Amino acid sequence: MSKGLPETRTDAAMSELVPEPRPKPAVPMKPVSINPNLLGYIGIDTIIEQMRKKTMKTGFDFNIMVVGQSGLGKSTLVNTLFKSQVSRKASSWNREEKIPKTVEIKAIGHVIEEGGVKMKLTVIDTPGFGDQINNENCWEPIEKYINEQYEKFLKEEVNIARKKRIPDTRVHCCLYFISPTGHSLRPLDLEFMKHLSKVVNIIPVIAKADTMTLEEKSEFKQRVRKELEVNGIEFYPQKEFDEDLEDKTENDKIRRDKPSSLKQESMPFAVVGSDKEYQVNGKRVLGRKTPWGIIEVENLNHCEFALLRDFVIRTHLQDLKEVTHNIHYETYRAKRLNDNGGLPPGEGLLGTVLPPVPATPCPTAE
Amino acid sequence: MDKEYVGFAALPNQLHRKSVKKGFDFTLMVAGESGLGKSTLINSLFLTNLYEDRQVPEARARLTQTLTIERRGVEIEEGGIKVKLTLVDTPGFGDSVDCSDCWLPVVRFIEEQFEQYLRDESGLNRKNIQDSRVHCCLYFISPFGRGLRPLDVAFLRAVHEKVNIIPVIGKADALMPKETQALKQKIREQLQEEEINIYQFPDCDSDEDEDFKRQDAEMKESIPFAVVGSCEVVRDGGTRPVRGRRYSWGTVEVENPHHCDFLNLRRMLVQTHLQDLKEVTHDLLYEGYRARCLQSLARPGARDRASRSKLSRQSATEIPLPMLPLADTEKLIREKDEELRRMQEMLEKMQAQMQQSQAQGEQSDAL
């Protein structure tokens, strides 16, 4: 802390302004040691409350992308996660749902409110992924879309006259749906996650998990995790971004680095989604009714939907956004600046012209 | 004496006894992408452990894997009747990122069996013709899709004129009853749209009883069959043990008609239509192949080409058989060996007969 400058500046300011009562500045006017007699409540912990109030007023953005073959229950799951019809759903078989020839990107925004907090949720669907006979490079449109959102944000950031709050369309979380074959990952799954895990937070989920018994589920999960590890694919939460020991222990439980306990609390979560309610033991629950029983979506003995929901929404929502901003976006930004010779991209800024957005990842991503 | 009774009503019994003695050959192909419960279903259908030693390779290995054709044989005996069942598996189908033309090896395989049979039929020694033609193909459709996928359509169109197709929805316990109905309906519509000919279960005779007719109609209505397979027996305390899959919310019983169509499939495939499948393969599909083959030979260009080919074989009818462009030399050597062996057998039998008649002759001389 410098001693001279703040003093003179404050004094000068005070002389210019109308002498009004000003709050005590956090920096002490004179270099003094902390007087032990001044113990007591300062009140800086109210900053949390202040931030909360601000967040409630401004609301926040959350962008979630769903990727997987058609019919794996992506839209149903998102609707179940956010307890509203936020994703377009081909629920009726009779509708003429033609599989698109190429992967399309469809982003639909909704504003959801809960407890006074407003969330602008955008669900990005990717119909056509993995549905063709030849699925080579079908992840490219998805990668391009993600990079385009980073680019949009970057352009706003480097503007001379910036918006106060840059609209955030970057993908904060990508749910990748694994087909419950019971064997292992499919080659397409590997390829997609290899390409995209360095660009966006990927959370793999095992879809339609009501086709697997407990043993099959646990074996499948183990195999999937091993395959991901062997191939160097880091899904969210990535080990390298754990900020402190607390994060590490909590995330380790989810990643299951510790020796296995009997309960399966780890990723990838085996989920079941539903938008229909049934009566079970006097309660109305979301579930699927079959001749041999009712599968309850929020029952932890049946599937891990509740774990996924708590993970994505109740505990790690903010972290997902932060990792996207501090890590993935920064990586992209650094790459772009490097490509541009250290100069920020943008028109009219020192005469530089915007280079085109790379459709494929730059070599450093590997 | 009964003047009215000639006695040929006993003919079916004679045929029955003969075929029981001869045994029964059946070749069943299973196709569909991996992870749809094909192996489990086969094990459930025939109560065997055909796939015990199987190892499913992991994803990285499957990145560059091409489709292979695997054959497994098993002899099943029940009620004095022996069935030699050959299972043809197609591991790797639909696995790769790029599955273009991945069905071609399968088509080739089916045609090779026809070709083999055509040669045998036109050969000199027709006593021991091995029928390795594929009599039926169980095609597994994913319950997770919204009907037939582009790959399903491509495969079915490539093989529907060459083999009896029975479409099946695998892992049907993923679906609620309404979803199953909707999926079946969608698949039926798509099959019609794409003009894919699946195996038509023949209509039952008008003189069958009502019960049978009703059952038959029900079975036809439930195509494609939504099946669940299991080799595990679930013993819930109190109730009798059943074959099924135990979940936390209940147990799916494989043989419960309200849970899945396993019983229907087993009845139609094994109990009632095994023979018909073989007949249709022979009378319709094989004849179609044969006609196409011979017709193409009747054209002048083809005839010259075939006669110039060093590996063609002259059959009794003097028509050189066409060679599939990709026939292996090794396979031909095998065929020649087989032919040689048969000739040898015949020779030995003739020798034995001669020796016998010689011995008899000596005996009669001695007398």
Automatic annotation (TrEMBL), chain A:
Gene3D superfamilies, per database record: P-loop containing nucleotide triphosphate hydrolases
Occurrences of domain Septin-type G (ranges): 58-339
Protein location: Cytoplasm, Cytoskeleton
Keywords: Cytoplasm, Cytoskeleton, GTP-binding, Nucleotide-binding
GO molecular-function terms, A-Z: GTP binding
One of the Pfam families matching this protein, by short name: Septin
Gene Ontology cellular-component terms listed: cytoskeleton
UniProt key word Cytoplasm: yes
Superkingdom, natural source: Eukaryota
Annotated stretches, region: Disordered: 1-29
Biased composition (Basic and acidic residues): 1-10
Oligomeric form and interacting partners: Septins polymerize into heterooligomeric protein complexes that form filaments, and can associate with cellular membranes, actin filaments and microtubules. GTPase activity is required for filament formation.
Function text: Filament-forming cytoskeletal GTPase. May play a role in cytokinesis.
Record-stated family: Belongs to the TRAFAC class TrmE-Era-EngA-EngB-Septin-like GTPase superfamily. Septin GTPase family.
Protein name: Septin
Annotated organism of origin: Balaenoptera acutorostrata (Common minke whale)
From TrEMBL, chain B:
Species this protein is from: Balaenoptera musculus
Subunit (UniProt): Septins polymerize into heterooligomeric protein complexes that form filaments, and can associate with cellular membranes, actin filaments and microtubules. GTPase activity is required for filament formation. Interacts with AURKB.
Family listed: Belongs to the TRAFAC class TrmE-Era-EngA-EngB-Septin-like GTPase superfamily. Septin GTPase family.
Biological role: Filament-forming cytoskeletal GTPase. May play a role in cytokinesis.
Signal peptide, first to last residue: none
Stretch list, region Disordered: 347-367
Record-linked Pfam families: Septin
Any one of the GO CC terms: midbody
Gene3D superfamilies in the record: P-loop containing nucleotide triphosphate hydrolases
Keywords of this entry: Cell cycle, Cell division, Cytoplasm, Cytoskeleton, GTP-binding, Nucleotide-binding, Phosphoprotein
Site location (Important for dimerization): 144
Top-level lineage group: Eukaryota
Biased composition (Low complexity): 350-367
GO molecular function terms attached to this record: GTP binding
Residue span, Septin-type G domain: 22-296
TM spans (from-to): none
Protein location: Cytoplasm, Cytoskeleton, Microtubule organizing center, Centrosome; Midbody
Protein name according to UniProt: Septin
Example GO biological process: cell division
